[in-house]
């Protein structure tokens, strides 16, 4: 049996603005509203981040995107152009550097709702098949 994650709900204080910003940075499609309550970001053919608006407080979530070297360069350029601060370590200071700790490249940023976004080219969570 193969199990695939289909979607994840992302709490937000402004669902459309947050979904749009992430989609623009990643270079993927998004939709302002679906079912009247979600603003989905379509990461790939099988995974969607559904932003939902809330006025309640919520914990910071961590999301990691594994991308190709070419996509990494393009996304990093969009992050830099947008003036978004990033860092090379998960809990480190904003150093505007790229981590190469695990044989690839990676960065972390916290826009727009405080959630922690990570982008890497080589997974450290599992060894290549």
TrEMBL record:
Location of the VOC domain: 4-122
Gene3D superfamilies: 2,3-Dihydroxybiphenyl 1,2-Dioxygenase, domain 1
InterPro entries listed in its UniProt record: Glyas_Bleomycin-R_OHBP_Dase, VOC_core
Name of the molecule in the record: VOC family protein
CDD domains xref list: ChaP_like
């Amino acid at each position: 049996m193969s199990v695939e994650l289909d979607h994840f709900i992302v709490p937000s204080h402004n669902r459309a603005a947050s979904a749009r910003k992430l989609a623009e940075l990643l270079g993927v499609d998004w939709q302002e509203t679906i079912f009247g309550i979600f603003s989905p970001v379509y990461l790939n053919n099988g995974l969607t981040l559904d932003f939902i608006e809330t006025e309640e407080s919520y914990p910071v979530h961590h999301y990691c995107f594994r991308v190709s070297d070419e996509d990494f360069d393009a996304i990093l350029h969009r992050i830099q152009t947008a003036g978004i601060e990033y860092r090379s370590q998960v809990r480190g200071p904003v150093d505007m550097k790229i981590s190469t700790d695990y044989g690839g490249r990676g960065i972390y940023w916290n826009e727009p709702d405080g959630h922690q976004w990570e982008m890497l080219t080589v997974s450290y969570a599992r060894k290549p098949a």
